[in-house]
């Protein structure tokens, strides 16, 4: 959350010409509710089930695309195993806690998992989640450090790694 998956994905889409999709948007479209509404009305367990279902359906029925996953997507329902497929290139946008704090502290009301957190609680939340999800994030085929880089620089770096 806050690493730039969606914004970098859109820029990368423009550079390489693959269509861009955001998994949260696909879920919201499918459920006809915002992610915030889904969390409030159905809860996180329901959301994670839907997330995995829609993720699996999408990657099996589409080719040549860029898909921004939610920060928790690889961590539930063995989704990280799907990201190991030979026909999928997964990218972890590694971002420091301090940078994530700066990006997220003004967005807590738009993000259901961050709503009502103080700055101190937000930092603790980020640290805990990065620690808990570290194993899954480091299973990505490519890791790109995002600190002090624009979304255009990050997308260009990913593009250059695609040519390898």
Describe this structure in words.
The protein has eight helices and four strands, in the order H-E-H-H-H-E-H-E-H-H-E-H. It is mostly helical. It has one domain: Rossmann fold. The protein has a two-stranded parallel ribbon. A two-stranded parallel ribbon has the order 3-4. Helix 3 crosses helix 4 and helix 6 packs across helix 7. The protein starts with a helix and ends with a helix. The model has no long low-confidence stretch (mean pLDDT 94).
Number of strands: 4
Shape: globular
Mean pLDDT, as a whole number?
94
In CATH, what is the homologous superfamily? P-loop containing nucleotide triphosphate hydrolases
The span between the termini is 28 Å
Q: Report the structural category.
A: mainly alpha
Radius of gyration, in angstroms, nearest whole number: 15 Å
CATH architecture heading: 3-Layer(aba) Sandwich
- Order of SSEs, N→C? HEHHHEHEHHEH
- Into which percentage range does the β-strand content fall? 5-15%
Strand order of the largest sheet: 1-2
Residue windows where pLDDT falls under 50 for at least 5 positions = none
CATH topology: Rossmann fold
Count of domain modules: 1
Helical segment count = 8
Largest sheet: 2 strands, parallel
CATH class wording? Alpha Beta
Estimate percent helicity.
Answer: 40-55%
Would you summarize the structure shown here?
With 164 residues, this protein is mainly alpha-helical. The protein is built from 8 helices and 4 strands.
């Amino acid at each position: 959350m806050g690493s730039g998956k969606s914004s970098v994905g859109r820029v990368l889409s423009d550079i390489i010409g693959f269509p861009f999709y955001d998994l949260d948007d696909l879920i919201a479209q499918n459920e006809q509710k915002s992610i915030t509404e889904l969390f409030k009305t159905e809860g996180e367990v329901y959301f994670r089930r839907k997330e995995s279902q829609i993720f699996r359906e999408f990657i099996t029925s589409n080719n040549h695309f860029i898909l921004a996953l939610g920060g928790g997507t690889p961590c539930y329902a063995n989704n990280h195993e799907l990201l190991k497929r030979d026909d999928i290139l997964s990218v972890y946008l590694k971002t420091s806690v301090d940078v994530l704090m700066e990006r997220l502290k003004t967005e807590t009301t738009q993000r259901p998992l961050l709503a009502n957190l103080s700055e101190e609680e937000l930092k603790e939340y980020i640290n805990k989640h990065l620690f808990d999800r570290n194993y899954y994030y480091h299973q990505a085929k490519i890791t790109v450090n995002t600190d002090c880089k624009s979304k255009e620089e990050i997308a260009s770096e990913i593009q250059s790694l695609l040519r390898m």
